[in-house]
């Protein structure tokens, strides 16, 4: 691949239809991340515009807590975005290491400021989660991955077209229902992130992704441990299920953050300055303990992670992970009863979520898996699985039928990519998988014919070479 002005070092991740590369911008000698979209594999021109819109959106924001965009361009069949390369890891890593409450509050304040800047431009991120929050080496948190951001004044149809709906562990109730969204959707997702920063756990944890989505819609706001009770009103205001019960905007959120910070500081000051015999051992011990806590919090706040996280994970190789047999086994009624953690959704009883809730959750998960190219893999967490489960409940569901057809179209895109790279076996497998799902798919049929013609031509050429025929 040749992008004028850039020297590409290595691929660092792949997601959907784009690949991320570590590169050097030759004119300035600085390391950058190049996000590249191969237009030859794109059947829908909306995806190209969406890719370019990502660069325009982020470049327009110009905020210290939002990733910096350097350049947007076209090189041959490739669209690219050149962006800031940061080396402080992501929030997901830091949560695993453990964060103090004050560090979590400091991160929250900076992220809320970044979102306020985005919302001021009528831009909703729609996928706030720890993996989309990176850090500079100095510890500054950055909001990244605006690839599915919605500009409210220009894109009122993003939800209805099923382009993207967020991440299950951080999805707002209105996102899960496919309703219109505004900045309060990002506040809800950021509230989920705050809960995870404070506790190390996600707000709702179940073996079934469907149950997680339903809990985001129906369950009460989770309760923090007693020692974190100071943060509960903040979490309640961010994660309220009714949109109107949440903070109205990031300004209101930032006011609440500052009020909480003031209360916590006042408590510390009162502890340090409490009247006591300055010679009493107990008083001296309390002062030493408070100072020790303050030093620890300061050290935690300025700690940085020195390793780069290849955040854009390459999707599983569909040719290995999804065989023809595995596709057929996911059809309605074919699940093995002995499989662990099996999700039963059809015929939900009165004790569980109602039929409509389950159907909406399945449709949401199916569309999201489709967007992430989780077509028939991993088992029981892919687009084919969710759409078929939806058809078990409602055999005439148009959304599920359309979704399954879109899976075949995605396999056609993958087949075209591998065919262009000369990967014949992968191409054949993608075509077979797609045709098992939709036998009448014309694109796949055409690709199959083309592949057959190339194979026959190659065979005849081999025979001519063998016998020395011209």
UniProtKB/TrEMBL annotation:
Residue ranges, annotated region (Disordered): 331-350
GO molecular function (one): protein serine/threonine kinase activity
UniProt: ATP binding residues: 35
TM helices/strands, residue ranges: 287-308
InterPro entries: Kinase-like_dom_sf (IPR011009), Prot_kinase_dom (IPR000719), Protein_kinase_ATP_BS (IPR017441), Ser/Thr_kinase_AS (IPR008271), TPR-like_helical_dom_sf (IPR011990)
All copies of domain Protein kinase, residue ranges: 6-260
One Pfam family this sequence matches: Pkinase
Disulfide bond among keywords: no
Keyword match Transferase: yes
CDD domains to which the protein is assigned, alphabetical: STKc_PknB_like
Superkingdom of origin organism: Bacteria
Keyword terms: ATP-binding, Kinase, Membrane, Nucleotide-binding, Serine/threonine-protein kinase, Transferase, Transmembrane, Transmembrane helix
Protein name: Serine/threonine protein kinase
């Amino acid at each position: 691949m040749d992008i004028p002005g850039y020297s590409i070092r290595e691929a660092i991740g792949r997601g959907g239809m784009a690949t991320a590369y570590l590169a050097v911008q030759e004119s300035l000698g600085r390391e950058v991340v190049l996000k590249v979209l191969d237009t030859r594999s794109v059947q829908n021109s909306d995806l190209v515009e969406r890719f370019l819109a990502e660069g325009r959106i982020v470049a327009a924001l110009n905020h210290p807590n939002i990733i910096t965009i350097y350049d947007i361009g076209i090189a041959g069949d490739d669209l690219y975005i050149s962006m800031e390369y940061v080396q402080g890891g992501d929030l997901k890593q830091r949560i695993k290491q453990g964060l103090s409450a004050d560090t979590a509050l400091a991160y929250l304040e900076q992220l809320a400021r970044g979102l306020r800047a985005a919302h001021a431009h009528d831009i909703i991120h729609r996928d706030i989660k720890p993996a989309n929050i990176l850090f500079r080496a100095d510890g500054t948190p950055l909001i990244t991955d605006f690839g599915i951001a919605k500009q409210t004044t220009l894109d009122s149809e993003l939800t209805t077209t099923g382009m993207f709906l967020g991440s299950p562990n951080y999805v707002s109730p209105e996102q899960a229902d496919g309703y219109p969204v505004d900045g309060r959707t990002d506040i809800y997702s950021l509230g989920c992130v705050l809960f995870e920063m404070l506790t190390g756990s996600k707000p709702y944890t179940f073996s079934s992704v469907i149950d997680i989505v339903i809990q985001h819609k129906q369950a009460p706001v989770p309760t923090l441990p007693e020692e974190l009770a100071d943060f509960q009103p903040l979490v309640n205001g961010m994660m309220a299920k009714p949109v109107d019960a949440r903070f109205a905007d990031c300004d209101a959120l930032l006011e609440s953050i500052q009020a909480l910070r003031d209360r916590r500081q006042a408590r510390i000051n009162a502890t340090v300055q409490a009247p006591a015999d300055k010679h009493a051992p107990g008083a001296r011990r309390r002062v030493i303990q408070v100072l020790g806590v303050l030093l620890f919090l300061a050290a935690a706040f300025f700690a940085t992670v020195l390793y780069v996280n290849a955040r854009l994970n390459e999707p599983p190789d569909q040719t290995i992970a999804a065989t023809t047999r595995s596709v057929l086994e996911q059809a309605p009624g074919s699940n093995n009863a002995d499989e662990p953690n099996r999700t039963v959704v059809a015929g939900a009883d009165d004790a569980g979520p109602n039929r409509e809730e389950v159907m909406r959750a399945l449709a949401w998960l199916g569309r999201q898996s489709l967007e992430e190219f989780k077509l028939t893999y991993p088992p029981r967490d892919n687009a084919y699985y969710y759409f078929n489960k939806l058809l078990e409940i409602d055999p005439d569901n148009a959304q599920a039928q359309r979704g399954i057809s879109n899976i075949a179209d995605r396999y056609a895109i993958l087949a075209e990519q591998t065919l262009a790279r000369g990967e014949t076996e992968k191409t054949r497998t993608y075509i077979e998988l797609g045709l098992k799902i939709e036998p009448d798919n014309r694109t796949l049929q055409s690709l199959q014919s083309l592949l057959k013609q190339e194979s026959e031509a190659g065979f005849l050429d081999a025979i001519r070479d063998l016998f020395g025929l011209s």
